[in-house]
Every structure is written in C-alpha cells, then in structure tokens.
Design a protein that fits this description.
The complex is a heterodimer. Chain A contains seven helices and no strands. By secondary structure, chain A is mostly helical. Chain A has one domain: Up-down Bundle (Methane Monooxygenase Hydroxylase, Chain G, domain 1). In chain A, helix 1 runs antiparallel to helix 2 and helix 6 runs antiparallel to helix 7. Chain A is elongated and about 70 Å long. Chain B is α/β, with parallel strands linked by helices. Chain B has a single domain, classed as Rossmann fold, CATH 3.40.50. Chain B is built from eleven helices and ten strands. In chain B, helix 5 packs across helix 7 and helix 7 packs parallel to helix 8. In chain B, 44% of the residues are buried. Classes of the chains: A mainly alpha, B alpha/beta. At the A-B interface, helix 3 of A face helix 9, helix 10 and helix 11 of B.
C-alpha cells in the first residue's frame, strides 16, 4: 500500500501495530509459560506468569490511548479505520487471553506439588498444544495481514472444543476412581476451561483479522463442538 | 442482433431493486472542453430525495459533471456534452427543452455566497417573480418567508428583510442563496462546495439544512471535504481523471471501498 501523504499518520499506525504485536507476543508467552508450569508442576514459573499479566494490561491501555488519539487527530476512514478499530478489539481479546493464562497459573499454584496430579495434568497436553498453535497462527495472521491464515484458525476452533469435551469426560473418570483426586481434578477442569476460552478468543481475533483485511464480517455460525455441558457423571457415551 | 437501447437500462436497474427511485439518470456522459476530454463515459443514477456527494481531487471532473445536470456548461464556449442525462425520464439535452425552465427545476448553490446586491427579501423574491410563481404580493411574501424558513435563516433575518443581502455574515449569505435556490421550488439542488468559504459553525448549519432539505429535494453536492461527504450524503461518487471510479453507499465507500484508487484518495495516500 502507498504511504500516506502525511508521513506522521503512517508513524501513528505503525506504532499502534507494534503495540498490538507486542501484546500478542506477551499473551502467547503467558499461555506458553502457564501451560509449561502446569505440566512441570513449576509453581515459581506460574507466579511469574501471574506477575507479568499487568504488563499485558498496561499494553492494552496504551493501545486504547494510541487508537483514540489517532481517531481524534486523523479522522481515519476505510482501511485505516478498520486497522485502528481492529487494534482496539484485538487488544481486548489479547488482554482476556492474558487473564485466562494467569488463571491457569493460579490453579498451578493452588494445586501445588502433588505427585498424583502430574499424571492427570498431562492429559491436558493435547488441548494446550492445540490452543498454543491456534494463538500462534492467528498472531501471525494479524502481523502479516493474512486473511487465509485467519480463516484457517477460525475453522479449526471446533477441534479445540472437541478436545475439551473429551478431557472433561477423562477428568470425571479420575474423580470417580478416587475421591482424593477430586481436588486437583476440579482445578484441572478449570484449567481446561480457561484453555478452551483462549481458543475462543483466538477465533475472535481471526474474525477481527478477516474484517481488517477484507472489510467483511464473518457472519456464518462459528464452528462449535463443545459438548461438555451435556456430559454427566454417569458417563453414558452416547448421551449427546 | 439489434437490442432496443432501453433494455440495457432496465437490465441494469433490475439488479438494484432496493434502491430508491432515480431522479437523475446519466448514461455514458462525455464532456469535452475543446480537445480536452474532461468527463469520460460517466453513468450514474442519482436517487430521489437524498444527498449524493461527488468527491475527487481538483480537476477530476466532479464540478464539470455537476454542471451538466443543469446545463451550466452550455455557457462555456467550446464545451461539448454527449451521452444522455434524464431527469424523471426526460432528456435534459433535448433541443426543444427550455433551459431557463430546466434551471428553475435544477437549482444551484456555489462555493462563494453570491447574493444579489439587493435586499434579503428581494434576493429570495426574484426567482418566483420572474418565473411567475406568485400572483399576489401576499403570495410572494409567503414564498419568501417559507423559503427563508426552510433554509433555516428566517429567525435570524426576520427583522431586517429590507437590509442588503450582502450585509449578512458568510454563513447567512450562503443560506440566503439556498433560500433563493429553493424559492422557485426546484426538484434538484446542486451544491458546488457550498461550505468551503464558511467557518465550522456555519458549515454545520448548512449540513444540518441539507438533511432537512432531502424531505423535498434531491441534493447533489461537490465537496473537497471527505468528512463532509461522509457526514451528509447517502451515496458517494469518486471521480478521478474524468472517470467515475466508484459509486456506492457512503458508508461502504468510507469503510471498505472496492477500488484501490478510492481507498488511496479517501485515506490520504494519493500521489
């Protein structure tokens, strides 16, 4: 795209873009560290994730300030307007992702170092891996303004929901096996839910990238496969 | 195979069923100033009782095209217009048509307020009088008052209708010119940068007025202010180098224009 006749306008937009990219990087790191802390039972790492969340919050404020001042001074239209509005919306989702990562980290602290919890925690690995891939892919789609990559993320969210549902069933079996498992399994259920929510925010971001690049909104129903709300403790396999 | 010329129009219009009726229809309009090809094959439908904005860089042809709609270009030596412009289905370039009558139906407001060097009252009364729209003095007074009211000026000038129009402020003068234009009950009002000589408050008053005027009139405005086009119009046409690059709903043009040239222009990325 051609630069603006007023060069400082481009500088404003670049600054905003850099802030969002930095936020995305920090949100990815929070997720990465929180899940590593979970699988390794690393309470110290979890505490670092909790402490680092305020940096993401601060970045969100900076994105908002920059976006508002750019709107006020430039009266953006068309692609510029879409970029600025998208940066505000992205910052919102990224801030939420940071919070959810922090929530996982808090659970890690709460579980502490119980040997029995470790095996159960590893059952979250496939879900965590998938969510990390989704977030990484959508952050890249934003940075490259790559609509095709964003749409791929958008379509893939169903897989996360399916993993979450099966994990829900698995954790229920652990709890039924031995009531001493109930405490940390309940924490793990919340972790799984937080990860699944991060997947939803990645899907939101995919929609934002699509709008930013094309000007169209994704109106179709999002791919959904979370059936955990239909899963009861009797574990009938074909209930849903 | 010979196709009747009309069928091409109906075919085109069939695709836009939801649009309001077109008041002004231009088909394949070309304008030449001597050898200079100022407007190239412009086809556009201007919807009734709405504001249509023409935007584009200087020299893009937007004012030239605007002036085709009431045949103001006829007065320029060496200017030649081809193609078809219809108002309510009637060809305005029909040789049998009375141009004076046309200009009564298609009023015009210019960049600089240009009141006659006469009283406020006479400025507005002049058109209705020469077109024989008022039979009695009372009729004429009523037309003047109504026009001033519709132009949002009456309250400000009601005590000095006899004062010279040129003594009003710039914004008031421009509203006086609008009152003068609408006093002859036109159907279409053309505005060529009507606010470029006004301060923001006077501009806001004119913009507010445009919205009210669409209850009765079809408005076409040429403006250099993209924000003004975005604020006042329902449809926007972007002209560049004599061609109509893009024409569509204002909201669409300013959020996601289709053509890259439109995007470059409205976002301030032009050459």
């Amino acid at each position: 795209m051609q630069p603006h006749t007023i060069g400082s306008y481009d500088a404003d937009l670049r600054a905003l873009d850099r802030l969002v990219v930095e936020m995305a990087g920090r949100a990815e790191a929070a997720l990465e560290d929180a899940t590593s802390a979970l699988f390794d039972g690393n309470v110290q790492l979890a505490q670092r994730v909790i402490a680092a969340d305020r940096l993401i919050d601060a970045l969100q404020h900076r994105v908002e300030e920059k976006a508002i001042s750019t709107i006020a001074t430039r009266q953006p239209v068309a692609v510029d307007l879409r970029e600025i509005v998208s940066s505000i919306r992205m910052a919102n989702d990224l801030e939420r992702i940071g919070d959810l990562g922090k929530n996982v980290a808090k659970r890690v602290v709460a579980i502490g170092e119980q040997p029995a919890s470790h095996k159960a925690a590893t059952s979250l690995v496939p879900l965590a891996t998938r969510v990390r891939e989704q977030l990484h892919a959508v952050a890249g789609a934003y940075a490259r303004r790559d609509d095709a990559a964003a749409l791929e993320v958008w379509r893939a969210d169903g897989a996360i929901d399916a993993l979450h549902t099966s994990l829900f069933r698995e954790l229920l079996t652990y709890m039924m096996e031995d009531p001493r498992n109930i405490g940390f399994c309940a924490h793990l259920l919340f972790c799984a839910k937080n990860l699944e929510r991060i997947g939803d925010h990645a899907t939101n971001i995919a929609e934002i990238v699509h709008y930013m690049v094309t000007g169209d909104t994704l109106s179709a129903e999002r791919p959904k496969a979370d059936e955990s709300s239909g899963v009861g403790p009797n574990l009938e396999p074909n209930r849903t | 195979m010979d196709m009747p010329a009309q069928s091409a129009f109906t075919g085109e219009q069939a695709g836009h069923d939801r649009k309001p009726a077109a008041k002004v229809v231009a088909r394949h309009v070309d304008v030449f100033y001597g050898d200079k090809h100022a407007i190239k094959d412009v086809t556009v439908d201007i919807a009734e009782r709405s504001v249509t904005a023409f935007i584009g860089p200087s020299g893009c042809g937007k004012s030239t095209f605007l002036r085709c709609i009431n045949r103001m270009n006829d007065t320029i030596p060496g200017c030649r217009v081809s193609g078809e412009i219809l108002i309510d289905g009637n060809d305005i370039y029909d040789p049998a048509l009375d141009v004076v009558q046309l200009r009564a139906r298609v009023g015009m407001v210019f960049q600089k307020p240009n009141p006659f060097p006469k009283s406020v009252f006479e400025n507005v009364a002049y058109g209705p009088r020469i077109h024989g729209l008022a039979r009695t003095k009372a009729d004429l007074e009523e037309i003047v008052v109504t026009s001033l009211k519709r132009a949002g000026l009456f309250e400000e000038v009601k005590d000095r209708l006899g004062d010279p129009g040129t003594g009003l402020s710039g914004g008031q003068q421009q509203r006086l010119c609008i009152a003068r234009a609408i006093a002859v009950e036109p159907e279409v009002v053309l505005m060529d940068e009507p606010c470029s000589a006004l301060d923001p408050i006077a501009t806001a008053k004119i913009e507010e007025l445009m919205g009210e005027l669409t209850e009765r009139y079809t408005i076409v405005i040429v403006t250099h202010s993209m924000q003004q086009a975005a604020r006042v119009s329902q449809r926007t046409a972007f002209f560049h180098l004599g061609t109509l690059v893009e024409f569509g709903d204002t909201q669409k043009i300013f959020t996601s224009p289709t053509d890259e040239r439109t995007q470059d222009y409205i976002t301030g990325r032009f050459g």
